[in-house]
# Entry
Amino acid sequence: MTEARSGQIQMMGDPTVLLDPDEARILLVEDDEETAEQIVKEFSDRGYTISHERTGRSALERAQSGGFGVLILDRMLPDLDGLFILARLREAEVRVPVLVLSALGAVDERVRGLRAGGDDYLTKPFAFTELVARVEALLRRPSDSRETRLRVGPLQLDLIDRKARRNGRIIELLPREFKLLEYMMRRPGQLITRDMLLEDVWNYRFSPQTNLVDVHIGKVRRKIDEGDAAPMIHNVRGAGFTLREPF
# Structure
């Protein structure tokens, strides 16, 4: 087992959003040494405390001990199937968010990972910026999934009556626009990539060459930032978008 730690954590896409490392500890379960070293370096350089286990048995024991904000779990381990570990954790009522890493990219495999109790599924090979963004999204995910009202600064979203409001002004949204805004409001201050939106809002399992995301982001931005309102949706050049409270 290896462990790395540095200081305060700056979230991607928003220099004002910081996390306490003690509340954002990561457990990585990965038997490939080269991949593990790269992941450990990527997160430790960003200020995270990250522990590394190489086998499923040691990982299961470590995860059950608690104290982690996210588990990054490789699917194909030499001793135990990652989904077996995941199922055992859920049976033991260990609720830590789990991101499954796998070279198995078929839709059926992704569905198996999610049904086993995984919170997200990322296919190898992957971009490290996307891995970090997905982990940060899990760290910032609301703990109560039954929440029916979302709020980011002056922006409110009621999931029951399907209404969006900013400072009391009702914002008329089409169904896809509502889903897009809900996705972003559940991840305030987080970097959200185009691939994440295509997969989770449009349910694409590939990255089509299209400006679909940018067009819809533009429509939602114009609606919530109407008039002289300070902008809340921001482009992160070369990476994606972030939604945050206006300054």
User: Anything to note?
Assistant: The chain has two domains: 2-139, 149-243.
